[in-house]
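User: I'm putting together a teaching handout on how multi-component assemblies are represented. Below are the sequence lines for each component of a complex, exactly as they appear in our records. Could you produce the 3D structure of the whole assembly as structure tokens, so the students can see both representations side by side? Please keep the chain order the same as the input.
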Amino acid sequence: MTKCLLSVKHLKTFSVLKHSTNALVAIENDEIKPCVYNRNPRNLERMRIAYKPTGFHLEAPGREFWHKIDVKQNNRYVTASVIHWTGPKVIEASTKEWAIKKYLYRCTDAAAYRNLAKVFAQRCLESGISNLYCNIDAPPEGKVAVFLSEVEKAGLSLTEPTRFLPWRPWDRHRPEKPWEVLE
Amino acid sequence: MTSVLGRLLYYECAVPLVRYRHFLVGKPPGVARSLEQRLAELNYKDPTLHFKVNIGFKPPVPPKASSVRKELAALRCSKELEHLARTQKLEIPLEAVEETWKTTGAPFHIKTIAEHYGVFQDLFGDAYFYPVKPLDIDYKSGDLYHPVYRGNVIKPSEASKPPEVQYKSDPNTLWTLILTNPDGHFTEENAEYILWFIGNIPGCNLNKGDVIWDYLQPFPAFGTGYQRCIFILFKQDQKIDYSSMKKDIPCLQLSKRTFKTEDFYRQHQKDITPAGLAFFQTDWDPSLTDFYHNVLQMKEPRYEYDFPEPYIAPQEWFPRRKPFNIYQDKYRDQKAIAKEYLLKKFKNRHPFEKPPTPLRFPNAHPIDHKIPSWLKEEMKKDRLGWGRINDY
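Assistant: Of course. Below is the structure of the complete assembly, with chains in the same order as your input.
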């Protein structure tokens, strides 16, 4: 079995800005390098600086997202999922699952949609994904609209923040850096 | 003469209304490959060389349709359930759903999301496992519980004390629990900081295990963003002697906490099998300043994301239709520009007196008409606080 050690493609460079204050030097922790590599592939998306594909101007449906919500129904079941722009389906909840199915009367009725939304939202929040892009054009008071409203009620946001682009010296404004704003 | 000059000026300024010959570069669309196809070809990896190896336990098998058919049939005929569903009052018990999910779909779902977070790639290289053992990990701060799921955010101040860890196990079995942070190592690129390591745990009694590295709270540096802290539970086949790895307690020297899960797993792979996985993300919060100074006894590092430099085209001798001042500022020494702005700023500022009150309607004040227009623009921009004046 060949194992190649950790790919470097997700690594993003950070350079040291400044050291804050002096401190006692009893434990030798002060020898650090000017660069730190954060290998977390979701980090830049959370910091709002990751690349988002823009697609073509008149393309429909648009593809400017990091994570997209997708709801699909077939004759038997409803499946809600989160899709990353690179392709993979990362979170999934379906009335096909025995855990959900065993409490439902029918697997595609409005009650199923509403309850699936709760489970789906819970899984998204537990996975650290709280902002999703949504391009579902649901007829009002339909089952999908019920699903979407229930998902929002459970604490998910159906809009994604815009990408932060660094300002250049010739730009007019200096927008605030998202990572410097403390919640 | 004038007419020639006029025509020249016309060609210079007007939008060209010329329709050029229609031509195609390369093959026509439909025949040529799309961008997606070309990228797929570029990123193709040979499956005989690039494959992943399952190093864990077998995932659970979902209940067979025949075994649940009776139960389902009863649900479909239930009048009470039908009434609830039709009147939109059917609420499924979320906790019970989660309990069933833990033993059926959870290993698959946790593996998928862990792959999305690059957990296996960064910790085990080309190996993966199904987390068949559900882990209940709770950080308790005050009266609040902060559970660890699979990527939720927990602040360092909430994770300052070791969490409560629960999993179902036979008291005669032995387990190893590690907590590791693969992001934000201060000196090495592909290394981790081990935050907690307990070996030879009988059942789920963590107090009776051997503490190799004591618990250290996560300490993501300012500006590095969100770092993953990953709990992995290994099942041991026999008692393992970890005494060579053991560090003095408390271990506060970060270089002694450098760890590589892959190396550790390779060393003990005959005796351990990964069974459980949970992880959270954490980012800087103000409580860490104190932690860096008093516990780690180091200067608090501050980082900033290193954006790529913007592309600036090579300078032309005769740039056309470009404002000369804005154009030339791109190629000037940035320090000279800074000096210019600073000198201008200090010239109007008395060292001991109050700074002048900002103008209420900045552009209502007239500017001498003899001043050239580009300089007027610059003055207006400075008055409004647009552009470079913000930097100095």
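A couple of points students might notice: The first strand of chain A starts at residue 12 and ends at 19. The CA atoms of residues 66 and 165 of chain A lie 16 Å apart.
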